[in-house]
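Deliverable D4.2, example record:
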Amino acid sequence: MKLIVDCGATKTDWALAGGKTVRTPGFNLAHTPADRLDAILKEAAQKVGPGISRIHFYAAGLVGEPPVDLARWFPGAAIEYASDMLGAARAVCGRTPGIAAIVGTGANTCQYDGSRIARKIDCGGFILGDEGSASVLGRLFITDYIKGLVPESLSAAFTLEFRADYPTLVKNVYGGGAPARYLGGFAPFLLSHYDSEEYVKELVDKNFRAFFERTICRYDCLPVGIVGGFGYACREILLRIGREYDIENITILASPLEGLLKYHAV
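Output generated by the structure prediction step:
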């Protein structure tokens, strides 16, 4: 039985080809503690069950040799380890060339030649890059909020909903275990005010224009495919901003799983 694994920072989906899908917490192989990682993998193995013969494992933070051995949890399975970026490319492009992007809590992009990543602009994370992501939108907003640059009515609504004072915000960003996820968690609040607050509209559009200008437009002119919950929630905005840069051929999926299941069905 074939198992497709889509692992992100927030959640991990374990999908059996033609069968059920189970969900566990997400993780990043670059910095998730080993004991936490073991607990998640143990949970996944119990939920998936026995009989797995092949695994295609796509994960955030996978650089070089994988720091995890899935054979410990799925003995006897043939395992392919790949980055979440390659997974996104296979999901939206299949076996044809294109530009692939992940737009979720973080953001990442690449140019795909139909079989491998041919070119990649480094994402930089939510501090140095990740333009277009939910975490960067949250960072842009919080930067304005703590300096008193957010319109008064919106600032009051945010304070009431999150009860986040300056010390709490600083502690969670600089001392919390998942600062990108924390900042990205403000995105739904902001999107709920997109149509009513010009400030929010300008902030969201600015974030996506940076995404196109600093990454997408620097690749060859090819069809663009985007995966990620935040990108899907903002699909109409992304399509509109894309047209500003003469990019008309854009596909947007909430999750790469559907495309990956199709890709690995061949």
